[in-house]
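Aggregate trends can hide what the representation actually does to any particular protein. For completeness, the protein is quoted in full, as a sequence line and a line of structure tokens.
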Amino acid sequence: MIIQTKAFEDLFDRGINYFRAGFYSSALAEFNQLKKLCPDYPNIDHTIEATKKKNEEINGQLSNFIEENFDDEVVSLSEELSVENSSNLAPVVKSFLTKGKYSQALEKLKQAEAIVPESRSLLLLMGNTQRRLGHLKEAEKTLLRASHLFPNDPDILNNLGNIYLLLGMYHEAEDVLRAAMRLSPDNARLFNNLGSLRMQTHNLDDAERLFRKALKLEPGRYILAKNLKNLQTRMVALDEEIERLREEYSLHPTYLDIGLSLAKTLFFRGYHAESKNVLRGLLKKNSGLSNAWFYLAIIYEIVDDKDNACECYENLVIHSGKDNAPEFLNYKRLFNQGFIEEALVEIKKIAVLELDIASSRINLGIKYFEDCLWEEALRHFEEATEINDSYPDAYYWKALALIQLKKTALAKKNLVKALELNPKYADAHFQMGLLIRSKSAKKAKEHFSEALSLNLRPSFARIAERLLNE
């Protein structure tokens, strides 16, 4: 029981690891695997839902024909459904489904299954209904059974591919969808759903080609135009971000976290080779940069290069000093015996990302602040607070940038936050005194006095003493 619980915790920790790093598709795969093994794991449903939302937020709202045509499919499949000795069952199922009463419909479908277990329309209806209810593993089992009974049915394969896509099983989804395309090469829904898959795996140019092909096959289909537009919006945003990061990294080549951001953005755009080159360049500058090893491993893993993924995770573990851990020894044994997939699972248990680069963002923000580039400075301070919300310095400098931008109310909130995190922050007390002295002279003097008692820097101390004596 203890070993099993540890395995669940490992899955959850890896999912959180991916989530923090921005690899939401990978995070979703880990959480879905955890849900499969332990459906009652604390807050797992909420975690999966939050990850799905972040994934959709990043990759765009993708739609497929199952969602759009569900009611139409219900009608046609319900009409096809014939249940011996129970003529009322099919109409009842149809009524429940069209009214959105999926749980009741599923109960009736299970009754029908006992009578006609090999009905194509029944299995498709059941798989779609289980999917609507979020019972993805049950839907997978239903559609796998359907595919064994009807191995050359593109509709069944398409539905199964979508289940794999929702489960984050991208290689399985692609295999199934491509098999369906060989059977139905002019099926727009298959091009659309494969395009959705390619977008989820960050192959955006390929996704655009597939969406365009789908739209060419069915020019009037709104859903295809919508997906293509969302994808192109995402591509433009990434291209702009890449251009900005390239310029920033060329100006500040010693700020390796900018290089990491550039590599990640290149990967999300689908420029895998360039992303790997940037990461390799970062590792030449600092071979102990665990974040670079982690991102590089993720890229190799998503493109199904398990050997190189293992190498990168191994380097991460070695540089983090965990190479004496039992998991690492198990990994080495499995890898040396040629069990690469099992070795990859084992080393990922301890290949943990240390994602705290907030201080570097603060330092870069200060450089922009010193150059009077207030907006740029503010952006970096905000990024620092997003990465790590426990740094009082980030809120302090964010407040100074906001003061320069004449946003004094927001500046005050950030100084309050800085002082909450560090009540003995002398500079923050001094700046708070300056900020509020016109509206609350008494309170301002309290802050000046507190700042002076905390060994305030000389240049600020002289101003504080003068203001106290006024």
In short: Residues 374 and 401 are 6 Å apart (CA to CA). The mean pLDDT is 82. Residues 222-251 form the longest helix (30 residues).
